[in-house]
Amino acid sequence: MEKSRSIIWGKNRFYGVALALLALVLVPFFLSDFLVVFATEMLIMVLFALSFNLLFGYTGLLSFGHAAYFSIGAYGTGLFLSRVSPSLLLAFLIGIVFSFIVAFLIGYFCVRLDEIYFAMLTLAFGMMVHAILWKWDSLTGGADGLVGIPRPKFSILLATIEFSSIPGYYYLTLVVVGICVFILWRVSRSPFGLVLKSIRENHERVEFLGIAMRRYRLGAFVISGTFCGVAGALFAPFERSIAPDISFWTKSAEPVFMSLLGGTKVFFGPAVGASLFMYLREIISGYTELWMIYLGAILIAFVIFLPGGILGFISDKLNAGRRGT
What we know:
- The chain has 325 residues and is mainly alpha-helical.
- The chain has two domains: 1-30; 31-246, no CATH class.
- The protein is 76% helix and 3% strand.
- It contains 14 helices and four strands.
- A two-stranded antiparallel ribbon has the order 1-4. A two-stranded antiparallel sheet has the order 2-3.
- Helix 3 (33-56) packs antiparallel against helix 10.
- The longest helix has 27 residues, at 213-239.
- It starts with a helix and ends with a helix.
- The relative contact order is 0.17.
């Protein structure tokens, strides 16, 4: 009986994911250009939130500096496209590699600390990156940032794909985000991911078992930061202009909000949280400039009444139903 329930549950999840993918593929056919642009940004933020949650929800480490890797990916890609070559593939690789290097260097020092000390050190490094982007005028454009970042054609073998159009870049984002989400999902289900969950629950016991906890933490930190860099690499050509504010600590707070809204212990929780966060921000900011106050109040309500987030609450109810309780 329990086995048949598991099979049905697995099929339902498969059909749910397939239906969601179909809906995403059909977005440009049924929605206006404005909504397609909004959906593109939402996909980028979904990847940002899911990448962050590998460290927060799965490893139990709260970072207030993940905007640094997002911005490094964005600036690396933007600088390469603007000043070196119009090759989109090479630009993405440059942005991702830079994010990987910076995440490794910062993570090497941060993973030695726990709890509030870890959080404050990530914040300090994040603000250091922000200061560099703000002050290095000759390279980053300083306070003005980078303007006029192109969306060039993408050539592979004999095929050339144009991404300057809104639907074209949406589909590029959908494919890249889809691949990254699948990789993150596999990582979370791997033995490596199981060790991360153990570290989250009791890192001292993991150390007593002889597991190199810092190496696993560093691995999670680097993977998380690198995929945040992928999100940033997508963001630069999407916006066509970037400024140092994408590296500020308030940007680092966004994936925290998204993860808490959707649920940190359910893989797709941050994706739901990111979608809800973007939607609420768009709606509320249309009525008032004080949208952060209202969004903050909503977050407080969720933390109090749904501490596990939206998907966490739904998952608990469904699991209770499967157990017959």
